[in-house]
Write a structure and sequence with these properties.
This protein is an alpha+beta fold and about 160 residues long. It contains three helices and seven strands, in the order H-E-E-E-E-E-H-E-H-E.
Length: about 160
């Protein structure tokens, strides 16, 4: 039984669509895998969560949940310490769809002399998979992982 021209065109359209989506998936995921490998490499070089020095502080420097009231960016409250954070794009485009690799750095410094008390450096890959292109949902992962929730409480000990 012979196919009509309309049926052949429909079959060709479906085949081309499947081929195009497969190509997008392959190209996107190969970029994603490349960035995953680069993230693992960079993480092995300087990914870390390290406390160099702990500090005992009076109770008034903590909130009711036991969290230290450490200011961010600069110490304009007289706390004596502050948190400095940064983020930069290592590879890829930060604001556009597609795979990207970001480096996050979080540091606790003493105000008087700038001494580094603790730091956390991690890398995050986001996007680059087919779900992002079709549904706007990007996958991602981090190495060694985001700043631990209790990191400041491990640096600043309540007296």
């Amino acid at each position: 039984m012979a196919m009509s021209q309309k049926t052949r065109n429909l079959a060709l359209g479906v085949a081309l669509t499947v081929a195009a989506l497969s190509l997008v998936k392959y190209l996107g995921e190969s970029e994603m895998r490349r960035l995953d490998r680069e993230m693992v490499r960079l993480c092995a070089i300087d990914g870390k969560s390290v406390i160099y020095e702990t500090v005992t502080l009076p109770a008034e420097k903590f909130n009711q949940f036991g969290q230290p009231l450490v200011p961010y960016r600069r110490d304009d409250t007289g706390f004596g310490y502050y948190v400095q954070g940064s983020q930069r794009t290592v590879d890829g485009r930060a604001q556009e769809p597609g795979a990207r690799l970001l480096r996050y750095e979080w540091r606790v410094l003493r105000t008087t002399d700038g001494k580094l008390l603790a730091e956390h450096i991690h890398y995050t890959r986001g996007g680059g998979d087919w779900q992002e292109w079709l549904f706007g949902l990007a996958s991602g992962w981090s190495c060694p992982g985001p700043v631990p929730a209790d990191f400041e409480q491990r640096i600043f000990i309540r007296d």
